[in-house]
């Protein structure tokens, strides 16, 4: 600090404390007895302030070492375990919390700050959030091998699918939203059942309850084994993207940013 600024600061303190802190002489200035006591306590206050800053930095670092991820059911059941396993091996000191919800609830959690990053399968995300495509999948119509559709030689029409009661996800899920948007121009039958997870729907179809529309991620094993049959629907496009979503700023930092970059890198490696 420049000498004139120091002099002004000392004079301000003297007015505030209503006492002389410095004895001024032509040969220089020395602390008064009162000034000596004040200087002693000032050093202590400054040391404590620096310690406070160190503690605050430690708390910030500790908090940054926790990662809360929210994922829609399809992503959580079929993709997140592998992603988090890779992330954990590279970042063993990060504590990970996973919330499994439908896509609408994931977006709500990102917006209200209860999670650091979300993964959704819904067709759209709010403009107030940033998003990045991390994977792709496709919805397919599946039935039990004994279902009458399994014996069809021609694809279903979109109208036939729309007017058939289906086993579906609950409103707010990405799978349900994608299906509803695809069939919005057709007369719809009431759902046969509404269930809260792809696994529950898959079990229902395996039990012969009725047809359903599910992600290829959820039924690939059962289709390969012949336990389920995929039914083609003429003119129906149910390809979709799976996205990471987060609040601004655009550049996601910390453990959440590391996870999204790992997921993106994994997706690129699989596509090559």
Structure at a glance:
With 272 residues, the chain is an alpha/beta fold. It has helices at 3-17, 33-64, 73-78, 80-90, 103-112, 158-162, 174-182, 198-206, 216-225, 254-271; strands at residues 22-25, 28-31, 66-72, 95-101, 117-120, 130-143, 167-169, 193-195, 212-215, 229-231, 239-246.
Describe this structure in words.
- The chain has 272 residues and is an alpha/beta fold.
- It folds into 3 domains: 3-62, Arc Repressor Mutant, subunit A; 65-136 and 241-271, 3-Layer(aba) Sandwich (D-Maltodextrin-Binding Protein, domain 2); 137-239, 3-Layer(aba) Sandwich (D-Maltodextrin-Binding Protein, domain 2).
- 46% of the residues lie in helices and 22% in strands.
- It is built from 10 helices and 11 strands.
- It has helices spanning 3-17, 33-64, 73-78, 80-90, 103-112, 158-162, 174-182, 198-206, 216-225, 254-271, and strands at residues 22-25, 28-31, 66-72, 95-101, 117-120, 130-143, 167-169, 193-195, 212-215, 229-231, 239-246.
- Strands 3, 4, 5, 6, 9, 10 and 11 form a 7-stranded mixed sheet that branches.
- Helix 4 packs across helix 10.
- The radius of gyration is 31 Å and the shape is rod-shaped.
- The model has no long low-confidence stretch (mean pLDDT 91).
- GO terms for molecular function: DNA-binding transcription factor activity; transcription cis-regulatory region binding.
- This is DNA-binding transcriptional regulator, LysR family.
- Pfam families: HTH_1 (PF00126), LysR_substrate (PF03466).
């Amino acid at each position: 600090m420049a000498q004139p600024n120091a002099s002004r600061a000392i004079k301000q303190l003297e007015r505030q404390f209503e006492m002389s802190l410095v004895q001024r002489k032509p040969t220089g200035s020395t602390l008064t007895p009162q000034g000596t006591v004040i200087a002693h306590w000032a050093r202590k206050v400054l040391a404590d302030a620096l310690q406070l800053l160190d503690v605050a930095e430690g708390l910030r670092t500790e908090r940054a070492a926790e990662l809360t991820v929210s994922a829609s059911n399809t992503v959580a059941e079929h993709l997140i375990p592998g992603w988090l396993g890779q992330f954990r091996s590279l970042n063993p000191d990060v504590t990970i919390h996973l919330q499994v919800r439908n896509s609408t609830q994931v977006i709500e959690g990102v917006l209200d700050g209860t999670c650091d990053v979300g993964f959704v399968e819904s067709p759209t995300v709010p403009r107030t959030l940033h998003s990045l495509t991390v994977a792709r999948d496709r919805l397919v119509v599946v039935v039990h091998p004994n279902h009458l559709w399994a014996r069809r030689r021609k694809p279903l029409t979109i109208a036939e699918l729309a007017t058939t009661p289906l086993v579906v996800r609950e409103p707010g899920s990405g799978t349900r939203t994608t299906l509803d948007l695809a069939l919005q121009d057709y007369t719809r039958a009431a759902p046969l059942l509404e269930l809260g997870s792809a696994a529950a729907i898959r079990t229902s179809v395996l039990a012969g309850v009725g047809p359903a529309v599910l992600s290829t991620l959820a039924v690939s094993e059962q289709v390969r084994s012949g336990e389920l049959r995929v039914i083609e629907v003429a003119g129906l496009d149910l390809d979709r993207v799976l996205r990471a979503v987060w609040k601004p700023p655009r550049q996601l930092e910390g453990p959440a940013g590391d996870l999204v970059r790992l997921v993106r890198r994994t997706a690129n490696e699989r596509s090559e």
